[in-house]
């Protein structure tokens, strides 16, 4: 079949017949429109023409192969068409937001001058596109839980011990048996390509260089295979599973990552429906206003994402996920399809921590999804503290991790004192890879390692095993938080 | 009798003989001056001339029929007079405040872009007249209770449960046996016409469309009949009773609404005298200053409203209400004049909740009148929490509702977890109808429904019956409130 | 002896021979220099010339008669001298601060538009001279206690009762047996003439008009006789005693006021040395900087007031007071010189309240001198609360009052609920008399009366006797205070 | 040997051969490069040329004699070279920061107008060089502990007692048996020359004049001998020991100060590794940016100080300190080399206070190094409060001091009420000597003495022995702190 001309593609610009061009190939997505997790509308915007620039940053390269039947892959466009698209892309006038980002990129300070995770976030907030920043930084409703996650750490103070030998000090630990140079892992987070063209691979390389472990999201913007291909020998990867509502499709995903060599499955249970991330939802409208100075969007709330419960970038990603998981059904099913260790990601109260232990999983990640799901979910540090006080036996049954709001090495140490084995960090790594690629990721680990070792030494311990609950105290006053009121 | 000329009306411009023209009819209000709840002074300002523009937004259409003897209805003006008044109205120079409102109206965002009740309030604050905003938004003294009502919710955090099937989720409930699509009703609030020419009917239509229930205030700016006329078949209305100090007049009012088909009586007990709403009282002075740039008002405090206890818009509305109600006398009286269910609106402590249960009423609305009455009255959410802890048996004796400070679906869910059957919302509906009419009201319900369903699913429940006190915790630290310090 | 010429007075301009002219009379103060409570330096600034303008606002008219031996009253100046002084005074260029005050005076709003004590303070802060505002508003150190006095009230919330007859509501009470129209008295405060030429008499007239009681300070800027002369028949006055270190002089003062008809003695015990009121101390320097744009003062800390413990306006006033009072010695002494009721002003903890009861005094005023003495003294409302909880029997032994930080009628009611018989108010009355004279004082009482009656009615009580501790609750969260953080 | 010419020195400008000129003498530091606590890089910047200006403010005069072998002292430069260096120094263009400081120096207010420690800090912040301010004011991480140290005092309120004789009031005490005019000492702090050319001697003279005691840091910028030489007869000095990791070198230091007449050894145990003082670390980069308007530094984190744990000014000072001290080894060793009283500086929890008492030391200084070491270490005032509540017996075993965050006389009194014998103050004295030399130090003591005496009198005590825990109360609400949120 001869390559397609633009003129041939152009008429297929409606829901009756909808073709799009992606990376110089033509696809018939007419039937797929209704299945698209992000809704038909966003595809129809590009019907009959090139959609590459919108498609690329939020889809892994194997998405078309996985989700669109071969018969709908209509083949390449001809060279004139490719040339025209390239020229158009070249000549396209940059948006105000793109120009702002370009200018900010040039003014990035050298990595060596960033001394803290806050320094890194400050740079990232300047160099990220409006869309990416909105997606990465947004949290649900009034962002109370997002801010409380961080503020919770500031209620815990130390009882430092003196006169203990600490010249030698080792911050390493193991997670599910795998060595980690510091008690920190990269928590699963979607769509790294939104912030940097190399996407999740920046995280993989940074983790490999520094000896920490990356948890890869089901919603990564690269294929699981590409990410695995970027590892060092012996570098473990974990997999964050968003379970599809269709068990067969879900099983296929688990078997794929097990085959690729992923070392554990982190079943995500706190994001069965999307949280209300207003900043993310409003982002396209605000961008429009920025670019044109006028307001044109006229869609209804329903139009944003389909059924009133799915909207925003996040909504699209999890539209097909299983909203009816149960302890009785889902854990046995998962055990039946994989021998990998299983961790439940998204425990938010003691009762469910107990149920997880009873279900025999290997670990739990106390998490409220970084404040992106239910606003007023308790901060993980508070839940951890409750478990330490009321059910300390749980720490013997499984490994306990927390994520959300960690901003300093002292935060990590506080969690470890209360019994956490390791701490997950998400946004800071996304910010780092967006602003500096893999070296940014390495820098985050360097900063944390220095802060962790300093805190350990000043606490009088030389190994993470020596950290204990007697070393922290939850104070009964309101400290001047490092997160401003 | 021949229609009146302006020249005939003009001389009746004093307290000796005071005539006014309203909607092209002449009324002799000389004797009525002393009975007018808003005081004589405000009428005398229009003595001998047309008063329609001042009269309309704060009086229901049947007010003259109800309160002024037929013999004082002097008949219509002639066509020259009507023409002159219309021309004068037409040529009247708009005030600065009116011009500001007109400009703001044109810049309203499309409803679809409002994602929260806060978004709606932000629009309303721009498009409302100074007078209306002052009346709607004002609260008493330093507005501590007004702000604390909202902040109280932010001290309650969730214990979300995972691994529970929630794909099907139903937020509906019943109130006094009447179905409500979400556990929210429109709390009684006066003077909707101040914000929008269609007034309370906007609320009625919005409630009808979305399947929730409206409580109509005794002080509505439309007649109870007009409001009832705007309902769908089967759409219930509740009635908020301000009891007149004269039992006979009060009985007449109750019998009227029962006859019209209202379904329950909500006896208001927390507003026997007006609260000190300084913003409302100061509004005319500030408006004057805005318009003229000078200060002309020279009245004394007493002049504002008569006896030192009645002033401001609110004062006028309740000037004749009963300040000597008692449990022994008032409830039996009310039972004797109606068979409708009775709810006490304005319970503010456990002791009175108990007395209400003992008095055998059908429900209580824990409320401090939106912070408009006694400043430093406890937030309803705190009173509800106390009842849950000290007298949980009360929830079996009667239905319990709260209002005041509700701003998010999570607030609604928190109240339901503690035992509330439903939650009343007032100001947000007034803001919505003012800014967008009935569609604004619909939008508020859409937003709340989405937030409520999302919160229920993320809590792991699929029916309001499954919400319980074990799902919320009152934290012992000060959270970053969604209402700023 | 012939009247003095300016030329004759001028050479007496040093500590060797120091004469000053006051109200056209010459005084030899050479020997008095060392006794002057405000220090010699301030007098020497005017040596050999007219001192009237500096002398007047801070000394009562009988000060020269009382404190300077007759032989040092050298007689009048001649008419040329009087003319020259008057001309100089006339031609004197007004200072920037005086011009600012004059402009502000013209822009005062009409009294009827002031609705709260905060409104009054806002006006006063504009129309007061820098010196007067510094003296009135200053508090010690970092003003923590000053602000906490007010914030303490905001931790107490009400349990309002409904369905109680309140159409009749009486806010009056008695203090030491004397009728007061509201449970509020004017707490003693010095130097009213600094703010208004009529000084303390404004307070007397305002109290007389409204039926409340004034406590007159030992350090009033008018004579005790002048103030008594301004009362209505039957209007009682109380006397605030600063006890002189010389018992004989102190006795003379007590006997004078008893003779004049004052009704009780309020012994001040919390101001034996001056607090560190930096704003007051810095005031002259700042004024200098304002006027000249340069800094000229070069004195040392000691020079400010003598011995390192006495400085600022306050220091001068109490320089000779008794720093060695004891329960054993001072109360019996006072009982021996007067039959008037005795109240201890300045109780700051339970232990001393108990000792006062044991000493048999008639009342105690829980007070930390408006935050002007020891910073971090507990707020009176907290001390009152402690007594209510730990020693409720004390309320049967003597009358208990509090002052400090009262800004609303609800504050008054809260104190009464906990057992206070009445509440003292100081600064607001000073501000009111400064800005509007006696009518300002009346306005303050009108405002408080309205707020008190409204609060009583909304609480469900019709007499102050019905207020009780069950009607207030000390909350365990941090409310949005009406005093900003 | 003939004096050196600049031409002869210049070629030695690399790590192969590195000579520097200091105060007109040439030193061969090639071998010393690797031993330099501040790293080789900073020396190499001046290799082959004059380094005096960088060297002087941070090294005591005897540093070269102590740390560089005599054979490396190569002798003087010739007069042409000295002349050239002097001319270059003269002609050197002043930096923007130097010009700013010069201007600020001219605008200092007279000392007599500074009424509080906060006033002094405000002046110092203007007149200090960027480098000095960064070093003095910086604290670790987010400076939570730095701010909490001060805020902790604001949670303690007084129970003032009245009717007690206080005309005579003596604030003096003894510390380790040595008389102190007020219960305050100068806590050890390094590098006074950074702020003022006379350095630590300003503190010595100020302490001598006012009768308080100075603790001299191991890292003083003058020699221990020079400082001792500035004392009055009978003026005691204490010595703050940073123990070298080499016991022999450490012993030498202890024996030196004992020989010089220092009266006690304060072993510093909370600074075995440097805290993360970002402001200090970033200071040179920020200065560069200020001076050039461009960013040139390209070093990595490691380059800042060597091994990732040593960096900033602080890092260099303690690079060789003992990180393996223990109770078992270190205290007996110290007892074996000196008969002087021993105090442990840096106790941060009850457990270590107990161990110190068991180890038989003479005193403990509860301190977290002014918030410069482990962020979230508890404020000393809180630790003191815990000891008072849980182990009051310790106050009988040894003398207890605290430092960190003291800003007012009331802070001192609060600590004494809880059992502290005296309170150390660091930064305020550094600020005072920087801004005004020795008279600034005197002023600080004058201010504190006045505040302490005033507080004692208003509390009803006339001797520090009469202060007790019943006079303070830790409140359960959040006061308006004198340190802003």
TrEMBL record, chains A, B, C, D:
<keyword id="KW-0285">Flavoprotein</keyword>
<dbReference type="InterPro" id="IPR036400">
    <property type="entry name" value="Cyt_B5-like_heme/steroid_sf"/>
</dbReference>
<dbReference type="InterPro" id="IPR008259">
    <property type="entry name" value="FMN_hydac_DH_AS"/>
</dbReference>
<comment type="similarity">
    <text>In the C-terminal section; belongs to the FMN-dependent alpha-hydroxy acid dehydrogenase family.</text>
</comment>
<dbReference type="GO" id="GO:0020037">
    <property type="term" value="F:heme binding"/>
</dbReference>
<keyword id="KW-0349">Heme</keyword>
<dbReference type="InterPro" id="IPR018506">
    <property type="entry name" value="Cyt_B5_heme-BS"/>
</dbReference>
<feature type="domain" description="FMN hydroxy acid dehydrogenase">
    <location>
        <begin position="109"/>
        <end position="477"/>
    </location>
</feature>
<dbReference type="Pfam" id="PF00173">
    <property type="entry name" value="Cyt-b5"/>
</dbReference>
<dbReference type="InterPro" id="IPR001199">
    <property type="entry name" value="Cyt_B5-like_heme/steroid-bd"/>
</dbReference>
<dbReference type="InterPro" id="IPR000262">
    <property type="entry name" value="FMN-dep_DH"/>
</dbReference>
<protein>
    <recommendedName>
        <fullName>L-lactate dehydrogenase (cytochrome)</fullName>
        <ecNumber>1.1.2.3</ecNumber>
    </recommendedName>
</protein>
<keyword id="KW-0479">Metal-binding</keyword>
<feature type="domain" description="Cytochrome b5 heme-binding">
    <location>
        <begin position="1"/>
        <end position="78"/>
    </location>
</feature>
<dbReference type="GO" id="GO:0006089">
    <property type="term" value="P:lactate metabolic process"/>
</dbReference>
<dbReference type="GO" id="GO:0046872">
    <property type="term" value="F:metal ion binding"/>
</dbReference>
<dbReference type="InterPro" id="IPR037396">
    <property type="entry name" value="FMN_HAD"/>
</dbReference>
<keyword id="KW-0813">Transport</keyword>
<dbReference type="Pfam" id="PF01070">
    <property type="entry name" value="FMN_dh"/>
</dbReference>
<keyword id="KW-0560">Oxidoreductase</keyword>
<dbReference type="InterPro" id="IPR013785">
    <property type="entry name" value="Aldolase_TIM"/>
</dbReference>
<comment type="subunit">
    <text>Homotetramer.</text>
</comment>
<dbReference type="GO" id="GO:0005758">
    <property type="term" value="C:mitochondrial intermembrane space"/>
</dbReference>
<keyword id="KW-0408">Iron</keyword>
<dbReference type="GO" id="GO:0004460">
    <property type="term" value="F:L-lactate dehydrogenase (cytochrome) activity"/>
</dbReference>
<keyword id="KW-0809">Transit peptide</keyword>
<dbReference type="InterPro" id="IPR037458">
    <property type="entry name" value="L-MDH/L-LDH_FMN-bd"/>
</dbReference>
<comment type="similarity">
    <text>Belongs to the cytochrome b5 family.</text>
</comment>
<keyword id="KW-0496">Mitochondrion</keyword>
<keyword id="KW-0288">FMN</keyword>
């Amino acid at each position: 079949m001869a390559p397609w001309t633009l003129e041939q593609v152009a008429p297929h610009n409606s829901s009756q017949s909808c073709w799009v061009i992606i990376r110089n190939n033509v696809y018939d997505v007419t039937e797929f429109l209704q299945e698209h997790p992000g809704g038909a509308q966003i595809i129809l915007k590009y019907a009959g023409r090139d959609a590459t620039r919108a498609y690329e940053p939020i889809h892994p390269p194997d998405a078309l192969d996985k989700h669109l039947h071969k018969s709908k892959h209509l083949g390449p466009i001809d060279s004139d068409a490719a040339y025209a698209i390239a020229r158009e892309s070249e000549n396209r006038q940059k948006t105000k937001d793109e120009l702002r980002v370009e200018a900010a990129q040039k003014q990035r300070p050298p990595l060596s001058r960033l001394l803290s995770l806050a320094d890194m976030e400050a740079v990232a907030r300047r160099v990220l596109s409006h869309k990416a920043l909105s997606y990465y930084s947004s949290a649900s409703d009034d962002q109370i839980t997002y801010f409380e996650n961080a503020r919770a750490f500031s209620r815990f103070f130390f009882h430092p011990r003196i006169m203990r030998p600490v010249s030698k000090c080792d911050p390493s630990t193991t997670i599910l048996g795998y060595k980690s140079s510091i008690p920190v892992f990269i928590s699963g987070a979607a769509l790294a390509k939104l912030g940097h063209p190399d996407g999740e691979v920046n995280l993989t390389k940074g983790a490999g260089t520094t000896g920490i472990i990356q948890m890869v999201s089901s919603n990564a913007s690269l294929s699981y295979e590409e990410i695995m291909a970027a590892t060092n020998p012996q570098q473990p990867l974990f997999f964050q599973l968003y379970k599809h509502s269709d068990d067969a499709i879900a099983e296929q995903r688990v078997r794929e990552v097990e085959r690729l060599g992923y070392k554990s499955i982190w079943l995500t249970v706190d994001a069965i429906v999307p949280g209300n991330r207003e900043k993310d939802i409003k982002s396209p409208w605000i961008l429009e206003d920025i670019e044109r100075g006028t307001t044109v969007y006229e869609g209804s709330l329903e139009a944003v994402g389909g059924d009133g419960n799915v909207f925003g970038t996040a909504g699209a990603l999890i539209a097909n996920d299983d909203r009816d998981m149960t302890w009785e059904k889902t854990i046995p099913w998962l055990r039946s399809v994989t021998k990998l260790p299983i961790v439940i990601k998204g425990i938010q109260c003691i009762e469910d921590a107990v149920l997880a232990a009873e279900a025999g999983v290997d670990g739990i990640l106390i998490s409220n999804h970084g404040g992106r799901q239910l606003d007023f979910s308790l901060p993980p540090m508070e839940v951890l503290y409750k478990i330490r006080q009321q059910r300390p036996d749980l720490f013997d049954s499984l490994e306990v991790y927390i994520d959300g709001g960690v901003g300093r090495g002292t935060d990590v140490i506080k969690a470890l004192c209360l019994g956490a084995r390791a701490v997950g960090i998400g946004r800071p790594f996304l910010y780092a890879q967006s602003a500096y690629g893999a070296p940014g990721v390495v820098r985050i680990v360097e900063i944390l390692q220095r802060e962790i070792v300093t805190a350990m030494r000043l606490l009088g311990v030389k190994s993470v095993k020596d950290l204990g609950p007697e070393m922290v105290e939850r104070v009964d006053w309101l400290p001047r938080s490092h997160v401003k009121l």
